[in-house]
Amino acid sequence: MYKLWIVSSESFPKKLKYTLGGKIDDLFLECLDLLFTASFQPKDRKLIYLDKVSVRFDLLKFLLRIAWEIDALEQKKYVHISELLVEIGRMIGGWMNKIKKETQPPPKRG
User: Fold this and answer.
1) Cβ neighbours of residue 95 under 8 Å, at least 6 residues apart?
2) Cα 51–70–60 angle (5° rounding)?
3) Contact 73, 64 (CB under 8 A)
4) What is the mean pLDDT of residues 74-88?
């Protein structure tokens, strides 16, 4: 997905390339960093990083939508990136749910 973003960002208008485009690029890299870091954490610490990446990911989707709405990003490229974002968002959510189940204390028997 990041590779697709890099190719798509080349056609960004010059006046937005280093503002909105730069922020989107930074968020992509930050999400990759957080996901990579989460993968090496013990189970009890993974959720800290996954929560952070979830928030950054939502902001990334929001900024990409703005880029599309102001015609800085072509519709075809936006649709393709959005589809990948939805899929990756589901994967992050699934990972979070799995960790929550694994780290919850067992129910008390009464």
Assistant:
1) 38, 46, 50
2) 10
3) yes
4) 93
Best CA proximity match to 35, nearest among 78, 2, 77, 6: 2
Per-residue b or e along 12-31, where b marks 16 or more CB atoms closer than 10 Å to that residue's CB:
beeebeeebbeebbebbebb
- Is the pLDDT at 70 greater than 90, yes or no? yes
Cα 9 from Cα 74, distance rounded (Å): 10
Token representation of residue 107: 């129910």
Residue 29 near residue 1, CB atoms below 8 Å: no
Predicted TM-score of the model (pTM): 0.88
pLDDT single digits (tens) 28-59: 999 999 999 999 999 889 999 999 999 999 99
Q: Which residue has the tokens 């929001």?
A: 62
- How far, in Å, CA of 43 to CA of 49, rounded? 11
